[in-house]
Amino acid sequence: MRTIDPHMQAYKPVATADAPADKRTRRIEPVTAADTPAAVPAAVPPDPKLVTFVELLFFAYRDFTREADVVLAEYNLGRAHHRALHFVNRSPGLKVAELLDILKITKQSLARVLKELVDQGWIIQHEGTSDRRQRLLYATEKGQHLSHRLDTLQARRVDEALRAAGLDNGDSIARFLLSMTSSEEREKVWALLPAAAPVSRAP
Amino acid sequence: MRTIDPHMQAYKPVATADAPADKRTRRIEPVTAADTPAAVPAAVPPDPKLVTFVELLFFAYRDFTREADVVLAEYNLGRAHHRALHFVNRSPGLKVAELLDILKITKQSLARVLKELVDQGWIIQHEGTSDRRQRLLYATEKGQHLSHRLDTLQARRVDEALRAAGLDNGDSIARFLLSMTSSEEREKVWALLPAAAPVSRAP
DNA sequence: CCAAATAAGTCAACAAGGCTGACATAAATG
DNA sequence: CATTTATGTCAGCCTTGTTGACTTATTTGG
User: Fold this and answer.
1) What is the spatial distance between Cα B12 and Cα B66, in angstroms, rounded to a whole number?
2) Contacts of B118 (CB under 8 A, 6+ apart)
3) What is the C-alpha separation between A37 and A57, in angstroms, rounded?
């Protein structure tokens, strides 16, 4: 089993074929055709209109990220570097632990990327003043320039899309996207957004 | 076939001056501060409000995909399998070439994933009727069930987000997302969407 | 009719960026 | 002073991308 979360092992084979299957705690065993017979009443099919949004999100993200990739490739950097640099530049003095919580990757994964960013002079680390164990992260001038360049590229695309969608004010879209984040994360994401953010109060 | 690599090159030294390296894979000297001097007029800084959308898109996608991962892990499947299965189930009889164009990955990458999906009975391939070179892709009943389950999961999240954003009708969001796709791709994406799709005409 | 183009598959090697587990170090804290 | 915390590191593995160089059927165009 692939491990996404440690607690995933909890899913264990359930019931026999005639066990009433709870939709959310489904079985695990390699599902054969017999496991999903026509006899099991098919759940209400997902609204095609809603599925459209899922697909649009995929296509939007697919193309959106590729644009920055081209620039990053000039410097032999990848998306992982981009994300780290962006959030560091965005929040100067960010702690490593905070960055980890934003990116939701392991510290070993981040370490590899961060090491390259530091070695190549995109990011510098300063010892924390109140807590000298901390390595506060700052984008160098060079790092700020690159981050700025990438931000501009992506901001332009967002701007064009907002206009194309006939929206001078994208508040509804911001609220939609914020609501798409996990509820447990929403407050943190909201807190991270700039004061001028196009989202009002979190519900 | 593919011309853009989303992942970047190695940190390995490339080509001497007489070896005309591919533009995309050329190793570039570490950019020093001198490469981005103040003399180059600093562009207008990106609107923080627009950058917010970039971040929200990141967070939304980050959490959105993790939800399906949990289900996929039960079957030892990954996101690559999910994407392939989804679009096959969505368009029964899809050609391999079409799927490649949707996913924007190489056929070698797809082959690996597709082989597993076929071997494990999620997808079957039929010889094309008009063109017998084609291997038309269909989700098996089992594959349809899984795809349906994942779609339902994601559709529910979209639905909740639409409601939370106070939108009974998400047309503006659909238009926004469609506009976020590359202009060259937009027509194809639009054509793929179901008739009931919440987007009117492409401009 | 046959040469060339096309649809798809395959082998081999490699890169990027995730992951786990185990351990190291310095500083803060009770 | 023992323990916890913030961070770093080594070693190895997995998924999913990539290139390049073919092969096999089948269709198509001259």
Assistant:
1) 33
2) B124, B125
3) 32
Prediction pTM value: 0.81
Identity of the residue in B28, B154, B176 whose CB atom sits nearest the CB atom of A167: B176
Closest residue to C14 (CA to C1') is B10
Residue A83 to residue B165: CA distance in whole angstroms = 26
- Among residues A10, A34, A38, A37, the alpha carbon closest in space to that of A24 is found at A10
pLDDT (0 to 100) of residue A193: 86
Task: Considering only CA atoms, name the residue closest to the C1' of nucleotide D25.
Answer: B133
For chain A, give the mean pLDDT. 80
Once rounded to an integer, what is the mean pLDDT over residues B59-80? 96
The secondary structure of residue A9, as a DSSP letter, is G
Backbone angles phi, psi at B125, to 5 degrees: -120, 135
- Measured between alpha carbons, how far is A92 from A76 in angstroms, rounded to an integer? 24
Residue B164 has pLDDT above 90, yes or no: yes
